[in-house]
Amino acid sequence: MTDLQQPIAVIGATGQQGGGVVDALLARKQAVRALVRDADATRARALRARGVEVVAADQENGDSLRRALTGVAALFLMTTFEGADGVEGEVRRGVTVADAAAHAGVPHVVYSSVGGAERATGIPHFESKRRVERRLGEVVPVTFVRPTFFMENLEPQLAGGGGGELVLRLPLPGDVPLQMIGVRDIGAAAARLLIAPDAIDGDAVELAGDELTMDQVAERVASGLGRPARYEGLPVDVLGDDEDMRAMFRWFATVPAYRADFAVTRHLVPDVRDFAAWLSGRGPARRS
Which Gene3D superfamilies match (predicted)? Predict the structure, then answer.
């Protein structure tokens, strides 16, 4: 069991997943230390107003990370491949954090990776997360949460104006089942594991709250929003020369792709939401 007298550190606290972890930890009255690049940024100030300790630390700077991670009970980490340096930058930052956590003596790390990371998918940003997983496993006690497709990825299409027919589009056939999870539930699962690392057997769990085809998603959207909706599958060619996204959507179409453990997800998050529940309760989305 984590020593709750010490704060739990969160990297990515101003984004989607990290923000969900902060919410879940604060709901448990757990002290939180947010590691952010700019401690004076608007979102950092908002965290401070909620009682979160905000500390400046850069994932590119091992010294700043070691200082910020000293004396914490656990660490939540997520990495992103977005940016000019892509997946290599993601790996570099993840390894820097892993080594800093080891140097600071962090007792336990929860890393949010991606469903399928361990299964040699060939998808560049899945493989980069696997490389971060390996480094973490070499240097610190770690648990991996591996989320499936984010329900929030559909938010931009659901926010279309007007009351006419809503058309959802992805480069995926409409009859292929896709496992998915809400960001709030990823945060809740990670928070549970930060506080109780032995809440699951083993060192990893693939998370999902629902499994639907996109045709079924459109049916639930129509019912939940009270407006006509349909799904239109697009060819993968709409992704142009983005080989990372092309590889991911080709993988989605090869069943089974994601292989979530629904029982363990529900064990960690008893009120985990299916898509209909997420749809009815969604609010303004955070940016990752």
Answer: NAD(P)-binding Rossmann-like Domain, UDP-galactose 4-epimerase, domain 1
